[in-house]
């Protein structure tokens, strides 16, 4: 049986792999604390659930337009104006089954064979794999904790070649928690002005989980806006990961291209989800604000707990719900049975010894770091980090 060579071009998401390993241990009756997964541990807001129930009762059960219902796209337009002071038309919006699909649509719509896509590290696992999927070339630009894991204008400039097709980043960033300020985006914008053919894919899915102030989109620069593809969705900000609703805002040519791709893959996303999404996007944001406040509390607690562990160094996240400590101080250490050679060994050691799941940094293009989520209760966070502390103390 010969499968497609496409499968050799990209990898399974490490995040999902770790979650699977955690579930397997749990199935054996082991109490595993999951610090690997990237989703809010909150319920979807009540008014959103009610809108979905009403949609079922009102028989919203048919195929939907490929880019989404017009009033959903109008709700996205309203949100972009309200939250980001950005003006779009509904024809520029394409709703999808999640930010992941929106990213796939965007990358497939603009990337040709060997086109270069610049991605600052660390980046969300799926970015590089989607570029490979589209037969593009990933150009990683290493950032560091010293620069707050952000790419500088000089680094960006140096990475651009005649083959550069796009720049792809997230702010707030998964996994580092970096949030680009208006000044930092202004500096990057200046570089993009010198290179008018480069697209900018701006993943803003963690917009509402921001600890340092107002969210800034790179689409705010009027002279760049036409080549920015904003990717956003409801998964993180409204605790709706399973509902599957993402969207893009772009120029109409790119929007039509993405609609064409989606029209031959998934069609329009779930009708019920779309009705609920209108309630989320235009309704009360208090539940999202409450959730962000709780993440702030947990971030503080996690940083206290990590601070008690010798050898773990970690910068404070500015957004999202992860910490991304550097673990290289543990390389070469052993508990007598296992020797830690890299962050993958570190992550597996914690899973097998402390029964805490995390994700190794190599998956995000930063091989010396490990991602730990704090989208879990304070109780589980404290229990998990106490176990991690004990397990690491055994490494000599
Ligand atoms: N972008 C980033 C940075 C993410 O972390 C995630 C989810 N982990 C996504 C996109 C995908 O989100 P969705 O559930 O909307 O597909």
Ligand inventory reads:
4'-deoxy-4'-aminopyridoxal-5'-phosphate
Mean pLDDT: 96
Shape: globular
Main sheet strand line-up: 2-8-7-6-5-3-4
Question: Which structural class fits the helix and strand makeup?
Answer: alpha/beta
The number of helical runs is 13
**Tally of discrete structural domains:** 2
- Report the biggest beta sheet as strand number plus sense, adding barrel if it closes: 7 strands, mixed
Give the total of beta strands.
12
CATH topology of the largest domain: Aspartate Aminotransferase, domain 2
Distance N terminus to C terminus?
48 Å
Strand content: 5-15%
Overall helicity: 25-40%
Please give the CATH class of the largest domain.
Answer: Alpha Beta
Question: Could you characterize what this model shows?
Answer:
The structure is a single chain. With 396 residues, the chain is α/β, with parallel strands linked by helices. It has two domains: 145 residues, Aspartate Aminotransferase, domain 1, CATH 3.90.1150.10; 238 residues, Type I PLP-dependent aspartate aminotransferase-like (Major domain) (Aspartate Aminotransferase, domain 2, 3-Layer(aba) Sandwich). The chain is 40% helix and 12% strand. The chain contains 13 helices and twelve strands. It has a seven-stranded mixed beta sheet, sandwiched between helices. The protein has a three-stranded antiparallel beta sheet with strand order 9-12-11. Helix 5 packs parallel to helix 6. The longest helix has 22 residues. The chain is globular, with a radius of gyration of 21 Å. It binds 4'-deoxy-4'-aminopyridoxal-5'-phosphate. 4'-deoxy-4'-aminopyridoxal-5'-phosphate (PMP) binds next to helix 5. It comes from Arachidicoccus rhizosphaerae. GO terms for molecular function: pyridoxal phosphate binding; transaminase activity.
């Amino acid at each position: 049986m010969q499968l497609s060579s496409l499968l050799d071009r990209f990898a399974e998401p490490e995040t999902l792999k770790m979650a699977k390993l955690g579930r397997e241990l749990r199935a054996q009756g082991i109490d595993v604390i999951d610090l690997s997964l990237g989703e809010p541990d909150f319920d979807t807001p009540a008014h959103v659930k009610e809108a979905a129930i009403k949609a079922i009762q009102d028989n919203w059960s048919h195929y939907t337009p490929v880019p989404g219902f017009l009033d959903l796209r109008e709700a996205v337009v309203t949100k972009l104006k309200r939250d980001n002071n950005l003006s779009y038309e509904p024809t520029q919006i394409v709703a999808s089954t999640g930010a992941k699909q929106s990213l796939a649509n965007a990358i497939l719509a603009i990337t040709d064979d060997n086109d270069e896509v610049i991605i600052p590290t660390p980046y969300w696992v799926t970015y590089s794999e989607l570029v490979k999927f589209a037969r593009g070339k990933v150009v990683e630009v290493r950032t560091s904790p010293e620069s707050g894991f952000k790419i500088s204008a000089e680094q960006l400039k140096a990475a651009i070649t005649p083959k550069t097709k796009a720049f792809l980043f997230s702010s707030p960033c998964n996994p580092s928690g970096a949030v680009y300020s208006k000044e930092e985006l202004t500096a990057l914008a200046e570089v993009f002005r010198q290179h008018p053919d480069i697209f900018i894919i701006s993943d803003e899915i963690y917009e509402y989980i921001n600890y340092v102030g107002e969210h800034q989109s790179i689409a705010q620069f009027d002279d760049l806006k036409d080549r920015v593809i904003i990717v956003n969705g409801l998964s993180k900000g409204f605790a709706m990961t399973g509902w599957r609703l993402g969207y893009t805002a772009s120029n109409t040519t790119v929007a039509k291209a993405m609609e064409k791709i989606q029209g031959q893959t998934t069609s329009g996303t779930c009708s019920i989800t779309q009705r609920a999404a209108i309630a989320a996007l235009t309704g009360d944001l208090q539940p999202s604000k409450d959730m962000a406040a709780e993440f702030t509390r947990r971030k503080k607690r996690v940083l206290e707990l990590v601070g008690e562990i010798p050898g773990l160094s970690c910068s404070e996240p500015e957004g999202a719900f992860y910490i991304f400590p550097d673990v290289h101080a543990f390389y070469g250490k052993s508990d007598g049975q296992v020797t830690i050679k890299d962050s993958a060994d570190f992550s597996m050691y914690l899973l097998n010894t402390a029964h805490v799941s995390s994700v190794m940094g190599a998956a995000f293009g930063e091989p010396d770091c490990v991602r730990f989520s704090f989208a879990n209760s304070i109780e589980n966070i404290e229990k998990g980090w106490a176990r991690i502390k004990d397990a690491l103390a055994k490494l000599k």
